Structure formats: structure tokens, C-alpha cells
Amino acid sequence: MLQRRRFIAASSALLATGGTQAQAQVSDFWARLREGGNVVLMRHAQTDPGVGDPPEFKLGECGTQRNLSAEGREQARRTGAAFQREGIRLDEVRASAWCRCIDTAQLAFGRHTVWAPVNSFFGGQGVREAQTRQVIDAARGVRAPANWMLVTHQVNITALTGENLAMGELFVTRPEADGSRLRVLARQVF
Question: Per CATH, is 2-189 categorized as 3.90.79.10?
Fold first, then answer.
């Protein structure tokens, strides 16, 4: 019985700490964005099940691609509502040419510009090193109070940061001093 009480007490403490950490992360997320000078990397929202796209997919033809699910469309709307509620400034909203990224940007932020450097290079579809360098170089020019939103793919974000993220998750980033990658300052999923 004593071991059970210790387990319950330890579990409760762990849950309480996790809740506090989660609240701190959300607070840090919004605080960083209010400072400006950030590049927010967003992986497109939830999609229909699958990896990559069907073999004969075509950019510009959404019916040939893996697209947002109903949950993904709602997730994108929740993200946009949170940014609007918090009054976060986004000077640029750039998206990959894939429909799931364009739709995420439109549903969340009501606008986007297709930008080739954030197009997927999964399966050899792009040039990883060149695209990654273009994004980092552009990020070095973002200054407060501006913030940029880049809606892209997991492979691109991992190349830029060295970290993985879930569909619909966002990283607040700034370039490392040596220009080698983007440093993750805060993260959030809605």
C-alpha cells in the first residue's frame, strides 16, 4: 500500500510539472513572437493517411496529392484563430507549392505566397542543400518587429533545424550565429 501511495504521489508531481512546463512553453511561444525577428516553421496540418504523395502526383492538381483531412483543416483554422487572438504580426506567409501547405496557410492565415525554397525535397523532388541554404539566408534578414511564417514539410524543417515535428506543429526559430541552421526557440501545436 505504501508503494502505491508513493507511485500516486510521484505520478501526480510529474503530471503537475508537465502541465507547468507545457504552460511555460506556450507562454514562451507567444512571448518570442511578440519580440519579432523570428521565422516560424509550420509543418502542414494533418493529412489523409500516407507518406509522401501518390506516384503520379502533379503540383497544382490537388486531386493527385495527399491532402489535408477534415481534422487538418480544423487544425489550420485553430492555429490561425490563436494567432489572431494573440495579435501576432506576420509580415510574410510563404508556403510550399503542395496543396496541403497552401491549404494550411490559407485556412490559418488567409494568405500565402508560394516560395520554391520550402517545396518538399522528399524522395529527391528538390535540391536539399540549395533550398535549405536559401531559407537560412533569407531568415538572416528577418528583423524585429517582423515575423515570417513558412508552411512546409517535415523533411525541410528537419534539414533546417535538426529536429522533427508533428503535422501542424510550429517552431519559432532564428538563425544560429554561424548560419549553419535555424535554432528552435519555442514550439507549439494547436
Answer: no
Give 26-81 pLDDT, tens digit per residue. Answer: 569 999 999 999 999 999 999 988 777 888 889 989 999 999 999 999 999 999 99
Task: Indicate the pTM of the whole model.
Answer: 0.85
Q: What is the pLDDT of residues 75-85, one digit of tens each?
A: 999 999 999 99
- Burial-class residue 170 by CB neighbours within 10 Å (0-12, 13-18, 19+): buried
3-state secondary structure of 108: helix
Domain boundaries, the chain: 2-189
- HSE-up (13 A, CA, CB side) for residue 103: 23
Query: ∠ CA(91), CA(189), CA(80), 5° rounding?
Result: 40
3-state secondary structure at position 8? helix
Q: Alpha-carbon distance 104 to 88, whole Å?
A: 17
